[in-house]
Amino acid sequence: MRQVWRLLDTGELPAANNMTLEQVILTARRRDLIPNTLHFLQFSPHCALVGYHQAVELEVETEYCRAHGIDINRRISGGGSIYMDEGQLGWEIFALKDTPGIPKRREDLYRLMCESVVAGLAKLGIDARYRPLNDIEVGGRKISGTGGTEMGNSLLYHGTLLTDFDVDTMIACLKLPLKKLEDKQIRSFKERVICLREALGHVPPMPDIKKAMAEAFAEVLRVELEPGGLTEYEGTLMVEELPKFQSEKWIRGTRASQESNLTIADYKTPGGLIRISLRIDHPRRLIKSAFITGDFFAYPKRSILDLEAALKNSSSRPADVLATVRRFFTGNDVKIPGVAADDFYHALCLAISDEGRNESNGREVHAIR
Amino acid sequence: MQMEKRAIPDDLFYDSNDFWIKVAKEAVIGLTDYGQSNIGDIIYLEFVPAGTVVRQGGRCGSIESGKWVGSLLAPVSGVIVETNREAEADPHQVNADPFGRGWLYRMETANRNEIALLMDSGAYKTWIEERIRLKEKDDVTL
After folding, report:
1. Which residues on B lie below 8 Å from A315 (Cβ)?
2. Do A106 and B40 touch (CB under 8 A)?
3. Taking the complete model, does pTM exceed 0.80, yes or no?
4. CATH fit for domain A3-252, picks 3.40.630.30, 3.30.230.10, 3.30.930.10, 3.40.50.720
5. Which of its termini does chain B have fewer beta carbons within 10 Å around, N or C?
């Protein structure tokens, strides 16, 4: 007999309410007061959310958000900053870690959850696939990012699904690895993400999207979903916890020392110019995100997007960068005439080094100490 | 799946959450080699402030890798007296040297009897092997 999980849909809520709900439902699950749950959530007004350990001022254009009525908040889960407007669908799983069928190995858990979303997208007519570590993509372009956290014996794993997306606002409100004024870079950046509207030519009604996703989760996780609302316990805890998630202390409180520098470097190769843009935390020796453009020709085209994914949150130590780049080119069938794998390594090292920073056209340095 | 060779020093005690504890005047706590290898590349570490009183199993910080935020749980009760600021600023040290530069925090323990209930190196090795066996079961099921 299949396990029965709750299907919870709380509709559109402000960011603080949704962030509170995550803490509340996870707490209720840990105390065994609710069954495992699939939760759909939406945001109104639109918002920028940073990961648990991130510093808002390093990740979000706070003035732009203030001027445009964009909420800012902090997730209890890991990962990077995201922009959620009213059209996006959030999904999340709350479960006991020892639930039969929930993998114990972290990477297996990521794969299972992402494969559920892939199956849901297939029901909508979209050929998506899981991209390690935590993304779902369509033709190399990201359509859903995911992340998670835990509390005692329980876990939360969640993600977003881009339905009809305002990329321009995302670029304006988040500090991304690109210079805001370069149209060519912005056009190229837009090619990194895709939404349902672009993939299908239309946006299916939200109830249809939720139905497809719920059916897919039920099939992949081999459970039955039973619609249900918040329990009295959750409602009470929600009221108690909401002020915390609305507070400046939660949203902008002190985080561990960190930096987020934009560095850009150009590197010439026989096959063309490689332009590397990085968001980098030098003290942590961490490439937070990478954006690679240029006038070379890569086959398949998606390979550069996959390389960017491999570099995200990777070590910026030269030996590690070399290992990441070589592992990528060894493991993927990539052809770039006139450009060798090590050219990307040299280009990355240039961007990481002081020389690269000095040559950058738009160096920005921001730090939290 | 074979257990990769992971260091398990004999002079330490271990808990089931993959933390080691070195018992001296003040106890030193860190993440085991097996623990750090399971977690993967650590991107962020945060500790509660020195002076915080924690109970055994209580949360004394957070750790992030692969977009996952986990908790640092105290193997024994006590007062945090110092946290490793260098590891907090460069968490790679926990991956690279979990029993050395990558230590996490020092604490004044409240109840020495709790230490007696922790695992020695032999018991911890057995515990790891049991978990690997369960993961292999996952591989068969998935």
Report:
1. 41, 92
2. yes
3. yes
4. 3.30.930.10
5. N
